[in-house]
Design a protein that fits this description.
Layout lengths: L2 E8 L17 H18 L19 H6 L8 E7 L7 E7 L5 H16 L15 E6 L8 H7 L15 E4 L2 H13 L13 E4 L10 E5 L3 H12 L6 E2 H9 L2
Antiparallel strand pairs: 1-3, 1-4, 2-3, 5-7, 5-8, 6-7
Helix pairs in contact: 1-3
Length: 256
């Protein structure tokens, strides 16, 4: 049995609501749910397969690359997550990952990359598209011992059940530029598909604060349509805004 910890500092509140839609205590299920969402986006961006857990065809040994680690009907998740408060450091948390069925090193490495993307560019927990919640910063990370190698990733993917293509990290745009957060009103009106559809959440998040650590400011959006992505990128390129494409994050990862 292996155990690794990732110590994080929440820069905003985290939401892990219960069945009554209240958040009285941190719940591991809320953290795991968003970890999986970002892990799926990373896996798809790298060319692997990740089902839609709300409408999955994965079952037992016949499952996608995301379910290999996170589990599905008839196939248990390979790790247990516990969230604990750090005794001597107010507001800091430890994510404790304990192996249940020993994950491969590449799985730990991909999970590590997922957490790093969340820490640097995204958000975690329920309501992570909401401006108020979900921003963390990694303080210490045992998972850094695992390295993503290009050949290892390619050998690992089974490429099954690849009919779900979104969200994919290759179709994300990230920014910490104040000008981007000021531009969100125009982006919403120009690209209404980012507001989501019935039964599906919106496809962007804008986090801007006046009395919170500057590192908490961030913006991200995604789409599952290449033409829509090109339109958004063309618009942002016409403005003096710094941003980073998800494609660049994937290139950085594969260069290791």
């Amino acid at each position: 049995m292996e155990q690794f910890t990732v110590q994080v500092k929440p820069l905003t509140s985290l939401w892990t609501g219960d069945i009554n839609k209240k958040c009285c205590t941190l719940r591991e299920t809320g953290i795991i749910g968003s970890l999986r969402w970002w892990y799926e986006a990373l896996i798809r961006g790298l060319g692997g397969s990740a089902c839609d857990p709300t409408n999955s065809k994965c079952n037992g040994k016949d499952h996608c690359d995301a379910c290999e680690l996170f589990g599905c009907t008839g196939w248990a998740r390979k790790f247990r997550l516990e969230v604990e408060e750090v005794k001597d450091k107010e507001s800091e948390l430890v994510f404790k990952f304990t192996s249940l069925r020993r994950p491969e090193d590449i799985e730990w490495a991909l999970l590590n990359k997922t957490i790093k993307i969340i820490s640097e560019y995204g958000a975690i927990g329920g309501k992570f598209a909401d401006a108020k919640y979900g921003v963390i910063k990694i303080q210490n990370n045992d998972l850094d011992k695992f390295i993503c190698k290009k050949t290892g990733i390619r050998m690992y993917f089974k490429k099954q059940n690849g009919d779900v293509c979104s969200p994919s990290l290759s179709m994300f745009i990230f920014s910490k530029d104040d000008k981007m957060t000021e531009e969100i009103v125009n982006i919403e009106e120009l690209f209404t598909f980012l507001k989501g559809t019935k039964g599906k959440g919106r496809k962007y998040s804008c986090k801007r604060y006046t009395n919170v650590n500057e590192e908490a400011k961030r913006f991200f959006l995604y789409t599952d349509n290449a033409e829509q992505y090109a339109e958004i990128k063309h618009y942002i390129d016409s403005l003096p805004i710094e941003y980073k494409e998800g494609k660049a994050l994937l290139r950085d990862l594969l260069e290791e």
